[in-house]
TrEMBL record, chains A, B:
Gene3D superfamilies: 3.40.50.2300, lambda repressor-like DNA-binding domains. It comes from the Bacteria. GO terms for molecular function: DNA binding. Pfam families: LacI, Peripla_BP_3. Residues 8-38 form the HTH cro/C1-type domain. This is LacI family DNA-binding transcriptional regulator. InterPro entries: Cro/C1-type_HTH, HTH_LacI, LacI/GalR-like_sensor, Lambda_DNA-bd_dom_sf, Peripla_BP_I. It comes from Actinomadura luzonensis. Keywords: DNA-binding, Transcription, Transcription regulation. Residues 8-58 form the HTH lacI-type domain. The lineage of its organism: Bacteria, Bacillati, Actinomycetota, Actinomycetes, Streptosporangiales.
Amino acid sequence: MTAPSSPLTIAQLAQLAGVSTATVSKVVNGRAEVSPETRAAVEELIRRHGYRRQRRRSPPTTLIELVFHALEGDYPVEITKGVTQIAHQHHLLVGITDLHHDPAAGDTWIDAALARRPTGVLAVFSGLTDHQHDRLARREIPLVLIDPADAPAKTIPSVSAGNWHGGLTATRHLIDLGHRRIAIITGPDAALPSRARLDGYRTALDLAGLPTDPGLITGGDFLIEGGRTQAHHLLTQPDPPTAIFATNDGQAIGVYHAAAQLGLRIPDDLSVIGFDDLPSIRWTIPPLTTIRQPLTQMAAAATTMLLHLAHHEPLPHHRLELATELVIRASTAPPPHPRRRTR
Amino acid sequence: MTAPSSPLTIAQLAQLAGVSTATVSKVVNGRAEVSPETRAAVEELIRRHGYRRQRRRSPPTTLIELVFHALEGDYPVEITKGVTQIAHQHHLLVGITDLHHDPAAGDTWIDAALARRPTGVLAVFSGLTDHQHDRLARREIPLVLIDPADAPAKTIPSVSAGNWHGGLTATRHLIDLGHRRIAIITGPDAALPSRARLDGYRTALDLAGLPTDPGLITGGDFLIEGGRTQAHHLLTQPDPPTAIFATNDGQAIGVYHAAAQLGLRIPDDLSVIGFDDLPSIRWTIPPLTTIRQPLTQMAAAATTMLLHLAHHEPLPHHRLELATELVIRASTAPPPHPRRRTR
């Protein structure tokens, strides 16, 4: 059989590859349930001949479902802005669901969502189970994860921030200022963004030839109150840190409270660096130095990926990681010399 | 032919306009493929006679449209939580639109919204014009306003906070602490919530037998930066106030910054009270005393009203005003005795 000169349909690709049309569909839609060999074979055919959709149906609805683990703080607003920006350009409505931290809520949502037949689903941070991912895949409803907390069992397209690099940059900033005793308050142990930031911290210390003191690593939960408790614990040690990497902005606010309670001035007595750069923290006193995650751009990029998938177009990147950026404000400074501490 | 007394069906409209029922259907469903002249003729008939759907079908979609003037800060999250809470109980999806402070954006939105035929529309703070209200009304799509900034030309059901009473309570709290020189930073002059809070302030002063000093009333815009500028102006007067009612939480944060810049301690040298009680301000240092608007409950109540309207049930209240509440934290205290000021 000679190669046709025009791009191949799914049926033609299936015939050439000796697999089912369903399998080819999975490959072109970026789904994971295909063996690496089959995927490679189909992708090689597409590379050689091109691929065209069999028929151009209009999507059944003009809706993107945006699913939040929880609606809290201004993080959801930054995400929603990015999604609505792209959706609006394509005349799509954005439907919001709040799972209230409740895994069971996802099951209720998905029954309704499948009936609505959305153009696609964007899931933020955490919330959908592998089983729910499968149910969407079986209906060929594309899914993209924004800022995923977990590593799903199968490869699902996602957009994250450069968490590891952000952790590295935050810690390096403190090292460059002259700090040697740098503490970290991590996020939830199971959340990948949290782990990546911690690994970046360790690597920055290591590259600078500084030891990692286990007493300066405390486990947090990304909440303000937890940040306060952990910071109080760190700052009342016999040899307290001169700087704290709070790993998110909420915990940094908690550190501010612990410092105020202990009579420590920021940044004179203690440097603090956050992570996120949410609008609400730009007006802390002093303004917080932090690592900016481009949440709105991440959400916009995820929406664009979702539209590619919905139109059966190949994704340029399956996992996209957008760069984080150091934003220096006024909460970091060289460590105090000589050490003067209230306790 | 005399005008019928009851609203017209599509068939009657088609007959009167001399066009097909399909054309009338396109007009009432907000579709674009109709000449401007035909659309104008049909809409004029609907304006004169009204329009009723021929048969009562179950709603074509199960969607509530939630329209924000702007997606900024955590205010939209508090509103969305209330709407999704009720919508979820009724298996309705909440679709979000961001008008980006742009009145023209409402026209683009409404064309799409009419085609989606939502169960109803919730408009927050400001954004939809009287003309847009009319277009929804003509399609029998119910509309409820949440925290409306303007007084619409026609009576549209709405849910607000007790703004006047909140202004009264905030000012009385400061008077009760012993303050006599109490300044106010108002919101936008044209926004009704802002005017109501100012009127409450005036009445509280008047009832306490205190004069209203025009030099202590400054115009704001509900933004942090504006709050800072106005507070700096107030606090550098020859006889500065000992307390400032910031009328929203954002402006209160601006006051904190002006005070920090002038070396004034809150609440020792200056008392500050906000309005809103958004989650993001509960962790200011010191924690802000404020007037709580029950935004989530307001949004939930508006959604319930919308569902009543969608089911052609009478509303118990056409305008609902939910009580505000004084939340005393740590930014208010008796005025300093004797006066000691850095400037």
